[in-house]
Design brief:
By secondary structure, the chain is of the alpha/beta class. Helix content is 36%, strand content 24%. It has helices at 6-32, 44-52, 57-66, 69-73, 148-155, 178-184, 202-208, 229-236, 254-269, 287-298, and strands at 76-85, 88-91, 94-95, 104-114, 131-134, 138-147, 160-169, 190-194, 217-223, 243-248, 279-281. Strand 6 (138-147), helix 5 and strand 7 (160-169) form a beta-alpha-beta unit. Helix 6 (178-184) runs parallel beside helix 7 (202-208).
């Protein structure tokens, strides 16, 4: 970049923006020039209802390929894989400015988004209002600040969920605890959360959720001793379905660490399990116990 000619740089940027705008306008004009009013065999009201209420993304794509009428009346871009890194969005591995286009988006398979090193980490705030529907089966978020309302719209269909350094806030900016997030993950089979926001009641509230016992895998990392290990211990001995993988913060007290070791010792001494043995880990755990417990966890 030639810093001695700032006007040259500004002019070039303006030309680039104008060029992009003209390109989008030309593409739309070319699309619309062959669009003609259709004479359907069914009443217009029925066709309009069908256009506005497609049952599946596959059906919508078939309709718009058959006739432009359906796209004109209900412009939707179907996205199989939506990804973001450093504030830049990619759709099916190709860059796309989701804010620029006057249409809705239908996500069918996967969302992966990281806002690492971005000052504004709430990158979903401008995208969620443009969502027509989210059917994503996989949701992976890193370094995000997400409103509870926005998360509710993208998590409900997910079967596999991974959240790392993700802060979820209510409208009043208060933090949303883990159990409230889990409650809306109604189709989840696997959940992993790094540094979850928990309270002394979190584990007890989790056990009350109807979807909690259906999880195949549940992982929490860097747990503080606010986590009620005794409620977990009672639930663990009745659990025959979910694999629990828990790691604890290095700052936990000696007393709390001793309680964890007591649970681990019981697992190691068990000859035949009538429950799903969990994996528990914290700083200071004996290496041999760690290896034996890990073996038990992965072999059951």
């Amino acid at each position: 970049m030639d810093l001695t000619h700032p006007q040259r740089v500004t002019s070039s940027n303006k030309k680039h923006k104008v060029g992009n705008s003209m390109m989008v306008t030309c593409k739309r004009a070319k699309f619309m020039e062959t669009y003609q009013r259709q004479n359907f065999s069914m009443p217009d009201s029925v066709i309009f209802y069908v256009a506005k209420n497609p049952k599946t993304a596959e059906l919508y794509l078939k309709m718009v390929k058959t006739c432009k009428y359906f796209f004109v009346k209900n412009p939707i871009i179907v996205i199989h894989r939506l990804r973001a890194f450093c504030g830049k969005w990619e759709v099916n591995e190709k860059p796309l400015d989701l804010i620029k286009y006057n249409c809705k988006y239908w996500i069918t398979d996967e969302i992966r988004a990281s806002a690492l090193d971005i000052v504004n980490r709430n990158i979903f705030s401008q995208v969620v209002p443009k969502l027509y529907r989210c059917d994503a089966k996989s949701l992976y978020l890193w370094s995000q600040v997400v409103s509870f309302n926005d998360l509710s719209l993208i998590i409900s269909s997910a079967e596999e969920i991974y959240l790392e350094n993700v802060i979820v806030k209510n409208a009043d900016t208060s933090y949303v605890p883990l159990e409230v997030i889990v409650a809306i993950a109604i189709k989840a089979k696997e959940i992993s959360v790094e540094e979850p926001k928990i309270t002394p009641k979190t584990m007890k509230e989790l056990t009350k959720l109807p979807n909690f016992s259906k999880f195949e895998y549940f992982s929490l990392s860097n747990l503080s001793e606010v986590f009620d290990i005794d409620v977990f211990y009672s639930y663990m001995k009745e659990n025959s379905h979910t694999e629990f993988f828990l790691t604890f913060d290095e700052q936990i007290s000696e007393g709390y660490m001793n309680r964890i070791e007591t649970i681990i010792d019981e697992i190691l001494e068990t000859k035949q399990f009538n429950y799903k043995p969990p994996f528990l880990d914290s700083a200071g755990l004996d290496l041999q116990k760690y290896r034996t417990l890990r073996h038990i966890f992965y072999s059951h």
